UniProtKB/TrEMBL annotation:
Keywords: Amino-acid transport, Membrane, Transmembrane, Transmembrane helix, Transport. The gene is yxeN. It is a multi-pass membrane protein. It comes from [Ruminococcus] torques. This is Probable amino-acid permease protein yxeN. Its main location: membrane. Belongs to the binding-protein-dependent transport system permease family. HisMQ subfamily. InterPro entries: ArtM/GltK/GlnP/TcyL/YhdX-like, MetI-like, MetI-like_sf. The lineage of its organism: Bacteria, Bacillati, Bacillota, Clostridia, Lachnospirales. It holds the Pfam family BPD_transp_1. The chain crosses the membrane at residues 34-55, 61-82.
Length: 83
């Protein structure tokens, strides 16, 4: 996620920043009014893709861990470790 934010901030053209400085904006105004809106509109697809990936993989990992726990319990019962 952080990498997508970083790359999208770098995707904003330098000319936009120079134009904001030429208009007399300070760094905070430039970031809030020029850079952030453009970077956010560019980064929305990457953020949504990451969220979808996390949701899908969470269910896969939970299924794998459930199987692992159940098999560990079964082997423990078979070996007499768990009563």
């Amino acid at each position: 996620m952080a990498e997508s934010f970083r790359s999208e901030l770098e995707a904003v053209p330098v000319l936009q920043m120079e134009s904001a400085l030429a208009l007399g904006m300070n760094c905070l105004q430039m970031f809030r009014s020029v850079i952030l809106p453009q970077a956010f509109s560019i980064s929305v697809p990457a953020i949504v893709a990451n969220i979808i990936f996390l949701l899908k993989e969470t269910s896969v990992f939970s299924a794998i861990s459930l199987i692992s726990v159940v098999l560990s319990m079964a082997f423990g019962i078979l070996l007499g470790m768990i009563k």
